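Working notes for the structural subgroup meeting. M.R. asked for a predicted model of this chain before we commit to crystallization trials. I am recording the input and output together here so anyone reviewing the notebook later can reproduce the run.

Input as submitted:
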Amino acid sequence: MSAYQKAAQQILSLAGAHPPEVGVILGSGLAGVAESFTDAVVLPYSEIDGFPPAGVEGHTGQLVMGKQGSCSVACLQGRWHAYEGHDLADLAVPIRALKAAGCKSLLITCAAGSLQKEMPPGSLMMLTDHINWPGLSPLIGPNDDEIGPRFTDLSNAYD
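Returned structure, recorded in token form:
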């Protein structure tokens, strides 16, 4: 059994009768979002197979399962970065685990900056594109057919 499959089992065990419908990955400064969940249960990353500890200041390093309204949510308070020295395949484990646990949607937040005066620090923005750096991809290596096709169609990724 792979690391993401083990982690998915742990997430489902924590979720009980309410498997997650939505996954959320919170970046710097947004850990408090999960405090609004009802029926919340918390599991530190150190107790989840394949999850390294969060290494960036402001990343709490825990999974919070709960309800936001009528929606079951699996919320990761913090994430990992390639610049911290993590293998790219390891960086994909949490996202693959959320999918394997039943999440149909994923919201990822981050600290991003803008050069526009209309977007001062603290503003909320929605990114509509990204740069795909060659050679930096968790898709490198053998394909896992349980996850799906290796090359995802990104033509509608931000629609």
